Amino acid sequence: MTGAKKRKDALIVFAKAPKEGLCKSRLIPWLGKKGATKIYKKVLEETLHNLSKLKEKEIFIFYTPRGHRSYFSQYARRVFLQRGRGLGQRMFNAFKRVFSMGYERVVLVGSDIPGLTEEITEEAFRVLAEKDLVFGPSEDGGFYLVGMRSPVEGLFEGVPWSSPVTLEVTLKRAKEGGLSVGFSSTLSDLDTIGDYLRLRKRGLI
């Protein structure tokens, strides 16, 4: 019996390799390449550790850039390179690939979310028992988590990423498709120096 038959739920972690100059570019002017990479690696590894505690969930890591599979293989059995031209296409392709393996509920999360716990992620799967889609809003107007019960074509088309209206536009796409939507907890992701200072003050990094 395969894992896909035993488990109905899958979690996708979207991650960048913690390589200097490739991650947290908006923190580099303040923290330097080494400092930004160190902070990102700490948050990434804490996130992967927390999510490893999830029960009855198959964990997938979709990573970028090419050449870092061995690093991520420490944390999950199923590790794939992200494929697609933009973020929306890469996320949709990841969902499509995982659903093709027979999973019924799939949640995707970012890897730079201090405070993301297994409890918050479990909450998202519970929402999907009743709704077509679930979002975890981030404080900057985007979302750190999105989940669905089947691949939704066009959900991410034309979405302005890293924008105060990222979630708003995505919800509009969901409404246009007649999809029901629920939400999990609101968290702050780590992108800007403002995020860094705020999260540090809260003791999350």
Structural commentary:
By secondary structure, the protein is of the alpha/beta class. It has a single domain, classed as Spore Coat Polysaccharide Biosynthesis Protein SpsA, Chain A (Alpha-Beta Complex). The chain has seven helices and seven strands, in the order H-E-H-E-H-E-H-E-H-E-E-H-E-H. The chain has a seven-stranded mixed sheet, with helices on both faces. Helix 3 (69-72) links the parallel strand 2 and strand 3. Residues 1-5 have low confidence and may be disordered.
* Shape type: globular
Low-confidence parts: 1-5
Number of domains: 1
- Helices and strands, in order, run as HEHEHEHEHEEHEH
The end-to-end span amounts to: 41 Å
Structural class, by secondary structure, is alpha/beta
Largest sheet, described in full?
7 strands, mixed
Radius of gyration: 16 Å
Oligomeric state: single chain
Number of helices: 7
What is the CATH first-level class name?
Alpha Beta
**CATH third-level topology:** Spore Coat Polysaccharide Biosynthesis Protein SpsA, Chain A
- In terms of DSSP E residues, the strand content is 15-25%
The helicity comes to: 25-40%
Can you give the mean pLDDT? 92
CATH level 4 superfamily: Spore Coat Polysaccharide Biosynthesis Protein SpsA, Chain A
Tell me the total number of β-strands.
Answer: 7
